[in-house]
Amino acid sequence: MIDILHQFTTGSGFPVVVLVCCAIIVVIEAAKASRRALWGDLFTEDFDE
């Protein structure tokens, strides 16, 4: 079990997994912080309310 974890963390898959997890966290936090700033330009041209 320890050998499998060691091979995974020293291989090329671990940095990719960390990068994907960090990207997901950043997108979720950005969506919670400001939904208008994140998605406003995608759905409407003028998002003035």
Quick structural summary:
The chain has 49 residues and is mainly alpha-helical. The protein has 3 helices and no strands. The longest helix has 21 residues.
Q: What is the count of DSSP helices, taking H or I runs of 4+ residues?
A: 3
* Rg from alpha-carbon coordinates: 18 Å
Average pLDDT confidence is: 80
Strand and helix order: HHH
Oligomer: single chain
Number of domains: 1
Main sheet overview:
none
Distance between the termini: 56 Å
Task: Bin the strand percentage.
Answer: under 5%
Q: Which outline best applies?
A: rod-shaped
Helix content: over 70%
Structural class: mainly alpha
Counting DSSP E segments of at least 2 residues, the number of strands comes to 0
Topology (SSEs and partners):
Elements: H1 2-10, H2 13-33, H3 35-43
Description:
Keywords: Membrane, Transmembrane, Transmembrane helix. There is one protein chain. With 49 residues, this protein is mainly α. It has one domain. It is 80% helix and 0% strand. The chain has 3 helices and no strands. Helix 2 crosses helix 3. The longest helix has 21 residues. The relative contact order is 0.08. The model has no long low-confidence stretch (mean pLDDT 80).
What keywords describe this structure?
single chain; transmembrane; transmembrane helix; mainly alpha; membrane; rod-shaped; about 50 residues; about 80% helix
